[in-house]
From TrEMBL:
InterPro entries found in the cross-reference section: 4Fe4S_Fe-S-bd, FMN-bd, NosR, NosR_regulator
Origin species: Pseudogulbenkiania ferrooxidans 2002
Localization in the cell: Cell membrane
Official protein name in the record: FMN-binding domain protein
PANTHER family with a match to the protein in the record: ELECTRON TRANSPORT PROTEIN, ELECTRON TRANSPORT PROTEIN YCCM-RELATED
Length: 730
């Protein structure tokens, strides 16, 4: 056993060394701060790689920014295309919750000429799927026009071109597809490659009522955008970073309610045909005006967007706003009226977004990244003639994934419900079983193992991991984003199932019945037990087990502590879980330290039952802690203290010498519950059975308390009274 522990330590060391080297690519790469804010983008980014033929580049221009690339011929420069940084344009998070920083090239005709991943934070591309797979994915855009409909998977009958995805990284590629298409389309519209289609102008209704602020907010005529300090990487505070209220003023009812009759009429008189006015008030700790306003009269922090058209504001587009007429209006310290000019494609009948553009500070690296916070505005139907027009909205990324996997989700939910129902009916199963015939328990459990390994593990690659626990912990104390967790539907469903069942029955239903890796290793152990190799199988002695079982808690707490310092390092160290090697990447696709570590764990699992689950698994440790608060535990008898029959047969070594079950370690194999009702295996029952048989007494059924139902003599029924003869009367 000591030699085994030394070998495990050696393999762990090799594993961590490989993990440390894995960060040498674009994963969490340290980019120069000038990449985000320098006018000379191409001095800090490999622009020539994504725009072949260009030998010089302009400074950043446009809003959002891009650069022009030129080719010099006979001393004359000719523009050959454009280069832009994805994070200058869009803020679309991938599976990690952070964007993939991508440099993109586009020619004068609007065709993709190249792309390069500069930085990503996807843990699956850290030590699992090679980073080259994401590069290969983005190369598929080369030659396509920005107006081409590109979707993951096979092309549809509607003419959509299909892109090959990355197995096991669905969320990442869907996010990256949006990054590539939205970034390129935005620039293409700015430079005139793609022309916007004008929308029908809004026709307003003017209801007779004059709503107060509460009514305006309830119906959506004014909208609220709040940005907390945490969202921009600053220490949290009771007062938000930004606390904006805004609305559209051209609509008569809304305009008069906000400004008052005379102020609204004065504003409308100043507007030219086709111009639109909106108001913004702010009571946050920071200003929405931005530093650019001070330098050159540019409000560089706010934009109005409709579809892919963006509108910015200068000092001439600003009017003072001193007061709000609506009753119940909130307090504010900053305000203004902004005019959207030269916007032939803007229509107030359709939804638009107010966007606050800011910098988010990474607390670990102190680097600033682009962040966009937006809120949609759409006039209520009662203010528009004919109501709101029909608008087809694209599905969010997470919803696309759910729709694509709907049949897989349905099968997975059915599987989880079936296992839950089976375990809920465990009393009926164990009563029908005996120590020599456990098929009523074994068949459902072994079936669950097979489905878990084949369908959940290798098929759907939905093995839960401690990295998700760490992500949840950080989300609880930081910024919670539902779309991040919804992006992987099977994992999302699995975790809700795990949380509910842990509080009901403890960790055992997941760890003992449904964990793909645990099911695989125990299944292999059972197979070996049916062969002559069974004689080599061993159980650790009680003293060694009592010490080693705490190791997994140390591993989990260590990972949690490291994650507070660096989530990247914690994700690397989480490779102590062999789950990725087993299901997601495959043993044959990993470097030799990972293969050696995996071989050691699986090899030992052939002869020791679930050694990883008992002693190393940080995921199991994280679930064992809340298992202390479960609602239902396994049954025990008064005689279980001095009796060691169940403890001898407990594969999880979860029963101590006093007969107590450690629910943190119990994997709910139900062997002890089979013995609980077995009158040939449970010593108290066996003794009672023998006593009754010897005394010639009947064997009554075994009750829920695990004892024979007592024989209670029934009282003798009283004899019926004889009828008295009737006396004759004269």
């Amino acid at each position: 056993m000591k030699a085994l522990l030394r070998l495990a330590a050696l393999c762990c060391g090799l594993l961590l060394a490989t993990a440390a080297e894995a960060g040498s690519g674009s994963y969490e790469a340290k980019l120069p701060p000038e990449l985000s804010d320098s006018p000379r983008l191409c001095d800090y980014a490999p622009c020539r790689d994504v725009l072949p033929g260009a030998d010089s580049f302009s400074e950043r221009q446009g809003k959002p920014p891009f650069v022009e690339g030129y080719h010099t011929v006979n001393g004359r420069r000719e523009r050959v295309g454009f280069v832009f940084l994805s994070t200058d344009i869009v803020d679309i998070p991938a599976y990690s919750g952070k964007p993939v920083v991508t440099l993109i090239g586009m020619d004068n005709a609007g065709r993709y000429t190249g792309s390069k991943i500069l930085k990503h934070s996807e843990p699956i591309l850290l030590l699992g799927i090679p980073e080259g797979e994401l590069t290969r994915f983005t190369r598929q855009y080369l030659g396509h026009h920005v107006t081409d409909k590109l979707e993951i998977g096979k092309g549809s009958d509607a003419g959509n071109a299909g892109l090959d995805g990355i197995t096991g990284a669905t969320v990442t590629v869907i996010s990256q597809n949006q990054v590539m298409m939205k970034s390129a389309m935005n620039v293409a519209r700015q430079v005139g490659i793609v022309k916007s289609k004008p929308k029908p102008a809004a026709r307003f209704l003017d209801p007779a009522d004059k709503p107060d602020w509460a009514r305006l907010a309830e119906e959506g005529a004014v909208q609220h955008l709040t940005v907390s300090r945490k969202q921009v990487g600053l220490p949290d505070d009771a007062r938000p970073y930004l606390d904006l209220w805004f609305g559209y003023l051209n609509q008569p009812t809304v305009g008069r309610a906000v400004l008052g009759d005379s102020a609204w009429q004065s504003l409308m008189a100043r507007l030219q045909p086709g111009e639109h006015a909106l108001f913004i008030v702010n009571d946050g700790s920071e200003s929405f005006k931005g530093s650019g306003y001070v330098r050159g009269g540019i409000y560089d922090r706010i934009q109005v967007q409709q579809d892919l058209d963006s509108y910015t504001f200068r000092d001439l587009d600003y009017l003072n706003l001193y007061d709000i007429a609506a009753r119940g209006a909130p307090a504010f310290h900053e305000s203004g009226i902004f005019i959207v000019r030269h916007a032939p494609n803007f229509s107030a009948a359709y939804p638009w977004q107010l966007v606050f553009l800011g910098n988010k500070i990474d607390q670990q690296t102190a680097q600033k990244t682009f962040a966009a916070f937006e809120r949609e505005y759409w006039l209520p139907a009662r203010y528009l003639q004919g109501g709101r027009p029909h608008v087809e909205r694209p599905d969010p990324t997470w919803l696309k994934v759910w729709k694509e996997k709907r049949w897989q989700i349905a099968g997975f939910v059915a599987f989880l419900l079936t296992v839950s129902l089976t375990y809920a009916l465990r009393d009926k199963l164990v009563r029908r079983s005996s120590r020599k015939d456990k098929r009523w328990v074994s068949i459902p459990k072994y079936t669950a193992w097979a489905i878990s390994v084949g369908f959940v593990g290798f098929g759907a690659m939905a093995q839960p991991s401690v990295t998700q626990v760490l992500t949840w912990v950080h989300a609880l104390v930081g910024e919670w984003r539902w779309e991040l967790f919804l992006s992987d539907p099977l994992i999302f469903i699995f975790w809700w199932f795990i949380l509910i069942t842990v509080l009901l029955w403890g960790r055992g239903l997941f760890c003992g019945w449904l964990c793909p890796f645990g099911s695989l290793t125990e299944g292999l152990y059972k197979i070996v037990a049916a062969t002559p190799l069974k004689r080599f199988q061993r159980k650790p002695n009680a003293r060694l087990h009592a010490r080693l079982k705490w190791l997994k808690y140390g591993v989990f707490l260590g990972l949690l502590g490291v994650s507070l310092y660096s989530m990247t390092l914690a994700e690397q160290l989480a490779e102590v879980e062999p789950f990725k090697t087993t299901f997601l990447v495959g043993v044959l696709h990993r470097s030799w330290p990972f293969v050696l570590f995996w071989t050691l764990i699986v090899g030992v699992s052939l002869f020791v039952e679930r050694p990883f689950c008992k002693y190393l698994c940080p995921l199991g440790a994280s679930l064992a802690i809340p298992s202390r608060f479960r609602l239902f535990g396994l049954k025990r008898k008064a005689e279980c203290g001095p009796c060691a029959a169940c403890a001898v047969g407990c594969g999880a070594l979860a029963i101590d010498d006093k007969g107590r079950i450690d629910q943190k370690e119990c994997l709910l194999c139900l062997d002890c519950m089979v013995m609980y009702y077995d009158d040939h295996a449970c010593p108290p029952l066996a003794q009672e059975r023998k006593r009754r048989t010897k005394a010639g007494q009947a064997l009554t059924p075994i009750g829920k308390d695990g004892y024979f139902i007592p024989i209670t003599p029934l009282p003798a029924e009283p004899k019926p009274a004889r009828p008295q003869p009737k006396k004759e009367t004269a």
